[in-house]
Design brief:
Blueprint (H helix, E strand, L loop, with lengths): L1 E2 L6 H5 L1 H5 L7 H12 L3 E4 L5 H8 L4 E5 L2 H14 L5 E3 L11 E6 L10 H13 L1 E12 L7 E11 L6 E11 L4 E12 L2 E15 L3 H10 L3 E7 L12 E7 L2
Parallel strand pairs: 1-10, 2-3, 2-5, 3-4, 5-6
Antiparallel strand pairs: 6-12, 7-8, 8-9, 9-10, 11-12
Length: 257
């Protein structure tokens, strides 16, 4: 099975949590919860996926909703929530089409998800929607990264693998990518395999072209200012220290007046 229009679906969603493994020590977790506690609730987790961030926060008493472009991710998140005894508010929407009746004191966009908006108009529209969905004084915080297109092309390599608990089969994800450096575009391919008794019993390939773009910290700061945010600044790599254009991982933050 091959798909040419990008989206989180199929085996990507089914084995998302299994292949990511234990993410409890990721530095993004304590960072974003501090942002929420400092800025206030309710909070919105944009591109929430299977609920990795928001369900942890809900279990700590945080009032947080989730939205994701993939209906399959949202379905998986509901399944995970049921297993945890949680009842979250979840929405299947693209961030540039965000239209939720609730307003928030904090909006977080983890995992560099904003970089999937390749089109400039979509990027501006998403920032406009975030602004509209914030209360006065509310904060937007987005984690971003700068890609290093070296080597320019990456041939197939094993990205992750894990044992499927239901039957002991091996789930393996292969990955490769290439870059359009001039236009700051990354294209990717993901191949998922189920291996049992040393035989591939199922395989799916997902082609994402384009997959994401990237920009420097100073550019991201300017985007938020243009969208009307104030007190715009950036932190370096989930540390509460100022970021610069030398940072390849940073968080840009802005406040709605």
């Amino acid at each position: 099975m091959s798909t040419t229009d990008y989206g989180y679906r199929g085996m990507m969603v089914e084995y998302w949590d299994l292949l990511r493994g234990d993410t409890s020590k990721w530095s993004s977790r304590p960072y974003f919860i501090k942002i929420i506690k400092d800025s206030g609730e309710p909070a919105l987790d944009v591109a929430c996926g299977t609920g990795r961030v928001m369900f942890d926060y809900m279990q700590e008493g945080i009032d947080i909703d989730g939205v994701d472009i993939s209906p399959e991710m949202i379905s998986k998140a509901r399944e995970n929530a049921d297993n945890l005894g949680l009842k979250p508010n979840l929405y299947a929407q693209a961030m540039q089409n965000l239209d939720i009746p609730r307003r928030y004191q904090t909006i977080i966009v983890p995992s560099s998800s904003f970089l999937h908006l390749i089109n400039v108009a979509d990027r501006h529209e998403a920032l406009k929607r975030f602004y509209e969905h914030l209360n006065s004084g509310g904060v937007l915080a987005m984690s971003l990264r700068v890609m290093d297109p070296n080597p320019v092309e990456v041939d197939w390599e094993i990205d992750s693998e894990a044992i499927r608990p239901s039957d002991g089969a091996l789930v393996r994800r292969w990955f490769r990518c290439n870059y359009d450096v001039d236009n700051r575009i990354q294209d990717t391919e993901d191949r998922y395999e189920i291996i049992k008794d040393d035989k591939i019993i199922h395989s799916e390939t997902y082609i994402s072209s384009p997959f994401l773009t990237w920009y420097k910290c100073s550019e991201a700061v300017e985007y938020l200012k243009q969208a009307g945010f104030i007190d715009v600044h950036a932190h370096s790599d989930f540390k509460f220290e100022p970021a610069t254009d030398d940072d390849t991982s940073y968080i840009v933050l802005g406040k709605k007046p």
